[in-house]
Structures are given as structure tokens and as C-alpha cells.
Task: inverse folding
């Protein structure tokens, strides 16, 4: 494979690189897709600390010096053969993860969407909430805690919702099950014993007229208004909607808020971010969270936002 190649780190079931790859093809920029679930059983790699990284997928091979930019989209555990002893399976997963996390930062390219350490840091919700607050975003009253009395005291004057501190899912034999943001009933406050097992994020329930999803690609900002308040299932968390065709429309953010979104990415060291806001009946905006690897395909499909082109353009520069 020629030099000046874009490296896309993702998974085999991720559709987003297909959209961006098509845009890169239009720009005449070659790319190499590293599906992390296919490594090491299908994809091969060699690293020499005095030389460089080499990755091979069938007839395609890329060297570290070929990489002009990196799109770190996501990674997952490898597809290992069935029948491995549990300890061996865990060891192979751990070694594979350690290899990828150790060699990718050695790539000479400095153009990352986004750097690994920046993504890992930004994924920590307490940290991103702190940064957003310091920058001037409006946040709902929030505590993250495993202390029952703190929650009960916090709830005295407000209706609360609860959400996960990190990724909102639980692994099960049937796959990952989503944990959506949910309202806390008064009766729930007498049964918070589960807090001894893990802390939870509690926030004051925000009255919304709509949810706003802001996708930021470097300097480009795309805002979608999600009409979440039309159905009970999506009022608190629009992802829990029972309407697969929940309505969206383009939304004009105030320029000051656009710039604040760009500043948040700069502060977090990110080149991409999907920001969730609430639009309140009085016209103000409330920050919920930022996902440094958030989804956006459905917005591009519904509203025609050229997000794929923006990503490809940034990677191809």
C-alpha cells in the first residue's frame, strides 16, 4: 500500500467507515481498515521498537511510515477460537489489547481523530462534566456518588434521574443490554442499597422541549433537533423511544454555543465529538455529555448532513 494512507481503527460490524471510506475514495485518498475484532486471528502485525509497525490484512499491508492520519473509531475484543480454556481466552484478549494500545501510539503521524489518551480521558463522565462546567456550559444540578444519604438529601428539593457513570450497558448471555437514563421515584429513595456496588450519576430532571445532538468534526458543527417530547418513551432518554422514526430536524445553534462546543473539543484534545444537549422551554441549553466516538450515521441519513465528508476531508489533509 502506498504512503500517505489513512488508518481506520474500528470493528468489522461498524458501518461508519464505509461512509467515510467512500468519501476518501472520492478524494483519491487511500485508506487501510484495521478491524480490531479480526486481529490477531485474521489480521497480522509486527512491531520492531527500532523499526516500525507493519500490519497485514490478506494482500494489503501498511507500514507505520505510510500513515498520514489515524481515525480511531473504536476497538473491541478479538474473535478467538471456541474451546479455549477461560484463562487462556482471557490471556489472549489481554495480550491483544496490550499490543494494540502499545503500538498505535508509536505511529509517527500526529494527525489523529482522536488521540487515544484524549478519548480515554474524555470518556470519563465526571471529568467531562467538570471540564464542560468550567468552560461555561449550563449543567443540571449533579452528584456522582455511592453514598445513600447524599442522594436522599439531594432529592429533597428536586426530581432526580439516574444514569450510568460510564458506558450505559450490561453484558449478558444475549449480548449487551442498554441502561437508559431513568427517573427516580420517591419509593426508589428507600431502596438504594445497590450503591454499595457502584457509584451512580444523579441529576435534576430537566424539562425539555427537545433534545439536541451536536456533532463536531474539528471546526464543522452539525446540530440536529430530536423531537423527543412527543412520546412518553423518549421524554427522559430519547434513545429509549418506541418510535424508530422519531422526528429530527436541523437546528440552528447560537454562535456562542457553537464556539463553546468547539472549545470543549479543544479542551479535551479531541478532533471529533458528539454532544448531547437539552433545549428547555425558555430557550436555554443544558449540557448532558459528550461522546468522543459517538454515532452519527442516522443523522446523516435523515438530515443529509455531510458528516462523512467532513471526517474524510480532515483525515485527507
Result:
Amino acid at each position: 500500500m502506498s504512503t500517505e494512507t489513512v488508518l481506520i481503527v474500528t470493528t468489522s460490524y461498524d458501518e461508519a467507515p464505509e461512509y467515510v471510506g467512500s468519501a476518501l475514495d472520492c478524494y483519491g485518498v487511500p485508506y487501510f481498515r484495521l478491524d480490531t475484532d479480526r486481529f490477531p486471528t485474521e489480521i497480522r502485525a509486527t512491531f520492531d521498537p527500532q523499526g516500525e509497525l507493519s500490519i497485514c490484512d490478506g494482500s494489503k499491508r501498511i507500514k507505520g511510515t505510510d500513515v498520514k492520519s489515524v481515525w480511531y473509531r473504536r476497538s473491541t475484543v478479538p474473535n478467538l477460537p471456541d474451546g479455549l480454556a477461560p484463562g487462556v481466552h482471557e490471556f489472549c484478549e489481554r495480550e491483544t489489547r496490550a499490543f494494540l494500545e502499545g503500538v498505535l501510539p508509536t505511529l509517527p503521524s500526529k494527525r489523529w481523530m482522536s488521540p487515544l489518551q484524549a478519548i480515554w480521558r474524555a470518556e470519563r463522565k465526571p471529568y467531562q462534566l467538570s471540564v464542560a462546567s468550567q468552560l461555561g456550559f449550563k449543567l443540571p444540578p449533579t452528584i456522582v456518588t455511592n453514598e445513600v444519604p447524599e442522594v436522599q438529601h439531594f432529592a429533597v428539593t428536586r426530581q432526580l434521574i439516574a444514569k450510568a457513570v460510564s458506558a450505559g450497558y450490561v453484558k449478558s448471555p444475549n449480548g449487551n443490554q442498554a441502561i437508559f437514563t431513568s427517573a427516580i421515584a420517591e419509593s426508589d429513595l428507600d431502596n438504594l442499597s445497590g450503591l454499595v456496588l457502584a457509584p451512580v450519576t444523579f441529576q435534576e430532571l430537566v424539562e425539555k422541549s427537545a433534545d439536541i445532538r451536536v456533532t463536531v468534526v474539528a471546526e464543522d458543527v452539525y446540530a440536529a433537533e430530536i423531537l423527543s417530547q412527543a412520546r412518553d418513551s423518549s421524554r427522559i432518554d430519547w434513545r429509549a423511544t418506541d418510535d424508530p422514526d422519531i422526528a429530527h430536524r436541523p437546528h440552528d445553534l447560537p454562535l456562542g454555543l457553537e464556539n463553546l462546543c468547539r472549545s470543549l473539543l479543544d479542551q479535551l484534545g479531541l478532533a471529533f465529538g458528539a454532544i448531547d444537549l437539552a433545549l428547555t422551554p425558555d430557550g436555554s441549553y443544558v449540557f448532558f455529555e459528550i461522546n468522543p466516538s459517538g454515532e452519527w450515521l442516522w443523522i446523516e441519513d435523515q438530515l443529509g448532513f455531510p458528516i462523512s465528508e467532513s471526517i474524510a476531508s480532515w483525515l485527507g489533509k
Remarks:
- The first helix runs from residue 16 to 27.
- The mean pLDDT is 94.
